[in-house]
Amino acid sequence: VTHSIPACIGSMTINGKQLDNESPVSIFAVNKCYETVQDGTFFDGSGFAALVREGYKVRSDVNITLEFRTTAAHGVLLGVSSARVDAIGLEIIHGKVLFHVNNGAGRITASYEPRGTNRLCDGKWHKLQANKSKHHISLIIDGNLVHTDNPYVQSTSADTNNPIYVGGYPADVKQNCLTSKTSFRGCLRNLVLTKGQHTELFDFSRAFDLRGVFPHSCPGAEH
């Protein structure tokens, strides 16, 4: 076995002596345990998860679904970029969800603004669906659909070749369709990307880089 156990461990003794886990000599990817937990992945607001090391190709069509829970009004949800301008990005800015797409001709944005500023940052689960179909893009939040017009109708393919960054991205990585550098704080679950008939559910524990991200469980409620 070469991977860590997704669990809580306490009251460990060796030769009758209890280990002090409050002040370890070193610590890596260990979070505190919570009395109540929910399925999902906890992002502590300091980092990101990096998926698909060889690069994800958005091209003409992609449908993204995920659920999020946060009390923060700002945070990166997801970004896939290229060395050029082609990219897609999902982020929360001032309590609004923005879906940006650049197929090479210019950035277009679908924006969902809830009636109350904190409606999406209330610590409850919200369902998001972002769809790019050639030059059309749409965003559905909790069943509410937002369309946006795209003047660049001839440009239909986002030729991305970088990893999928979720919840943030490294300082030295360029994201052409994200305006925020703020890492997401809260919980995400059920991240699914669909292209045509191919549907992929992403397991954050299989990310090739995890910083400040704790797969498998979320605190039952943020305090």
From TrEMBL:
Top-rank taxon, per record: Eukaryota
UniProt-listed InterPro entries: ConA-like_dom_sf, Laminin_G, Neurexin-related_CASP
Laminin G domain location: 38-218
PANTHER family documented for this protein: LAMININ SUBUNIT ALPHA-1 (PTHR15036:SF81), PIKACHURIN-LIKE PROTEIN (PTHR15036)
Protein name (database record): LAMA1 protein
Encoding gene, per UniProt annotation: Lama1
